[in-house]
Amino acid sequence: MWRPWGNKKMPLRIHDTSSPFSCSSFKDIQHLCTQDSSASSKRNANVFYRVRIANSLLRSWGPARTGKITDSVSDPSISIPGAEKRVVVYFTSLQVVRSTFEDCKTVRSILHGFRVSIDERDLSMDSRFLNELRGILGQSNLTLPRVFIGGRYMGGAEEIKQLHEIGELKKIVERLPAAEPGTCVVCGGYRFLLCNECNGSRKLYTQKSGFKTCTACNENGLIRCPSCSCNFFFFCC
Questions:
Q1: Domain range spanning residue 186?
Q2: Domain Glutaredoxin spans what residues (predicted)?
């Protein structure tokens, strides 16, 4: 502040510049820019690191590699015989667990975008799909979805989404033949039909034994469409 008029000496108050809120001078700009560029380089390094890990993961799935690998990577020895020319997806259409339903919906949407032949096996429509999947993977506690491409096990929702983000899923799927246009004229694309034996009632009547449960269909009174679905189970219940 200004010194007062007069001959009387007064103590001079000087502004304290040691406050933590003081502004940086122009000589600090170079230092700040260096910090920002180093943070940006760290982010770029993280992106390149994820891509490098994904590429090494794909190389480990090559046909020359056999045996067990890390828990975070799918086992390439797991496969479905006879499914070399299509995609097989085990999923559920029930919305009981929202996260599982959203994962199934996302994966199916990604795969349908490639316009290849997809064999969708809905566990909520036929419980025998569950026994089939358990037999293939050798596990009792399973999460959905599970995807096989060209007969080879690729993993679940996280693996498919990561491969799609880095562009590797397209390279894998492009090896498969394109799907035929249009929907199935037999089932209309639903992949299931009413049972011809019981007409969906799950009950049959004979004069000799009365009513009995129909064994030709599943618990919903449905059979798989013979035109667009596979007619065999790997592991029947």
A1: 182-236
A2: 88-153
